[in-house]
Write a structure and sequence with these properties.
295 residues; alpha/beta; Rossmann fold; 2 domains; five-stranded parallel β-sheet; 10 helices; 16% strand; globular
Length: 295
């Protein structure tokens, strides 16, 4: 069977835990890994990225594979070639796996259905970002083991692919999930299809029962013009400051952070239980584990 990681739905709980456990082992093992069979991996990023694209490149190299980075500016898409023709061209070169980030929802699924090649979704529009949620879980598992924790997710949940993947994953794990957001950044009908037991709050002032608070980036590039004015309103009501953190939950954010909109400078620079850079570090090892899973 040709494997894929397009959605958290593609993975069983056993597979999710195997990827997390392998990532933790990779993070503790400093020995160089030598592969007997080198794979050729295409890293196609059609949206800006720092953490994800670099971590996939590092992951492939740490496993001894070849990786070819392709972004929009370097592709024939910038010359007017259609998306389908670009994909057909790349697939004709027989990559062993394709990693893709695209602003269009479900394009990784379409590629897999058309070509049946191993594929990892590195973010498709506002749909999903499964490897981000896998790295979040690996880090939480390293911290909490198999404890059923309570996690709050705050911010632009409606337009966040990270939120959608994490809510699916945390639901599989039977975590307690609390969503903290204004109504204009929520789609409760959509979320009900994933989990009917999610708690909702419209304030950060009462997060004493959380083990973890995960803040999300406002997806300015995905919100419609009518919501542009909501950014300043969100900032005044939901920017995380030290007063919100008196119960000392761990802090996460998938990055990049809009300083003083989602999280204050003081929290970012001084909070002692921030895991934001640990997430970046774990991203390399989870993506190593994801490539091992594909192959």
């Amino acid at each position: 069977m040709i494997k894929k990681i397009i959605s958290i739905d593609d993975l069983s709980l056993k597979e999710i835990n195997k990827i997390a456990d392998d990532a933790i082992k990779f993070s503790l093992n400093k020995k160089k890994i030598k592969k007997s069979k080198v794979k050729n991996i295409f890293n196609l990023f059609l949206e800006p990225s720092t953490r994800t694209t670099v971590s996939f490149e590092l992951a492939a190299k740490k496993l001894g594979h070849n990786i070819i980075n392709i972004n929009f500016d370097k592709s024939s898409l910038s010359k007017g070639e259609t998306f389908n023709d670009t994909i057909a061209t790349l697939v004709s070169m027989k990559p062993d796996a394709l990693i893709i980030r695209d602003q269009k929802e479900f394009s990784p699924k379409e590629i897999y259905n058309n070509y049946k090649i191993p594929i990892i979704n590195a973010g498709d529009g506002k749909n999903e970002h499964p490897t981000q949620s896998l790295l979040d879980y690996a880090l939480l598992k390293k911290k909490f083991g198999n404890k059923k924790i309570t996690i709050g997710i705050c911010g632009d949940i409606k337009h966040s692919r990270v939120a959608h993947s994490n809510i699916k994953l945390f639901t599989k794990l039977k975590y307690n999930i609390e969503l903290i957001a204004p109504d204009y950044f929520l789609d409760k009908k959509d979320l009900l299809r994933i989990n009917k037991n999610i708690s909702y709050s419209n304030s950060l002032d009462n997060i004493r029962n959380l083990d973890v608070i995960m803040m999300l980036r406002i997806q300015k590039e995905r919100i419609n013009k009518n919501l542009k004015s909501s950014v300043s309103k969100f900032k005044s009501q939901y920017c995380l400051n030290l007063n919100h953190l008196k119960s000392s939950p761990y802090l996460m954010h998938p990055g990049p952070v809009n300083r003083n909109i989602e999280i204050s400078d003081q929290v970012l620079d001084t909070y002692h239980k921030s895991l934001i850079l640990d997430q970046v570090n774990m991203g390399v090892y989870v993506r190593m584990a994801c490539l091992e899973y594909l192959f």
